[in-house]
Design a protein that fits this description.
There is one protein chain. The protein is of the alpha+beta class and about 230 residues long. It has one domain (about 15-215). Helix content is about 55%, strand content about 15%. The protein has helices at about 1-10, 20-40, 95-120, 120-125, 130-165, 165-170, 190-210, 225-234, and strands at about 45-50, 55-65, 75-80, 85-90, 180-185. A three-stranded antiparallel beta sheet has the order 2-1-5. It has a two-stranded antiparallel sheet with strand order 3-4. A hairpin with a 5-residue loop joins strand 3 (about 75-80) and strand 4. Helix 2 runs antiparallel to helix 3, helix 2 (about 20-40) runs antiparallel to helix 7 and helix 5 (about 130-165) packs antiparallel against helix 7 (about 190-210). It is rod-shaped and about 80 Å long. The N and C termini lie far apart (about 55 Å).
């Protein structure tokens, strides 16, 4: 209880940092970070093709979704010779998808923490060089992570598109089957997730410059004396 009182006593809301690039870009990072992991996590899609045996038309549907362990669900193909084949989508792309979402969630938490720090504890942030320096290091690390995870997820998404393309799935049909593509999976949401990932890379990398200006690396610790002071001392 005493700790909470100390924390609340030091809180002083000041919306001024939102008018500066440091705070404004951090809010943009917060928004685009949410967009990045929200468009990937929870995705559910399906791909369909029809099998025409003359007197019977069968619709084959293969469902898939985040985290894109495609062989986890099977779909059945009822061939025209009355045989049934349980088939699986090929490829496990969960590592790149989960890494992308993990970076997004961690970035969201860090943005939330720093926005509270900027707006409520600005005096604590600026009273020493430690706050801006740590902020610069962490922001630089996140910029690198966004580069890695967005590139990895972009490659993983390309493989997901190939593995769920119904034009490739109908290759499992027998020669006497008449398989025709019905619907392609909707990938617009996943395409936007990769775009949001690289937008986050630009935002986090660009924000490093504005945070750098708050550090002692940009501001000299002991500013040189002015000319008048030099003359008076002499």
């Amino acid at each position: 209880m005493e700790i909470v009182q100390k924390v609340m006593s030091g809180f002083s809301l000041d919306l001024g940092p939102l008018k500066e690039p440091l705070g404004f870009i951090r809010v943009l990072e917060w928004i685009f970070t949410i967009c990045a992991f929200a468009t990937t996590g929870g995705y559910v899609g399906s791909t369909q093709f029809t099998l025409n045996c003359g007197s019977k038309i069968d619709q084959v549907t293969a469902d898939f979704g985040y985290p894109f362990r495609l062989p986890s669900k099977s779909y059945e193909i009822h061939h025209c010779n009355s045989s049934t084949n349980a088939t699986y989508l090929q490829g496990d792309f969960s590592s790149s998808a989960e890494f992308f979402v993990c970076v997004g969630v961690l970035g969201f938490l860090y943005c939330t923490f720093t926005i509270i720090l900027y707006l409520g504890y600005q005096q604590v942030y600026r009273e020493s060089n430690r706050g801006p320096t740590i902020d610069l290091i962490v922001t630089g690390i996140f910029a690198f992570l966004w580069l890695v995870c967005s590139s990895a997820w972009g490659k993983g998404l390309t493989d997901v598109k190939y593995s769920t393309n119904p034009e490739n799935l109908i290759k499992a049909c027998l020669p006497e089957d008449h398989c025709v593509v019905k619907t392609y999976p909707s990938m617009g949401r996943l395409n936007s997730s990769v775009l949001f990932g690289f937008l986050n890379l630009l935002l986090w990398a660009g924000n490093c410059w504005f945070i750098y200006k708050e550090t002692p690396f940009h501001k000299p610790a002991n500013p040189p004396p002015n000319v008048e002071e030099g003359v008076s001392t002499s």
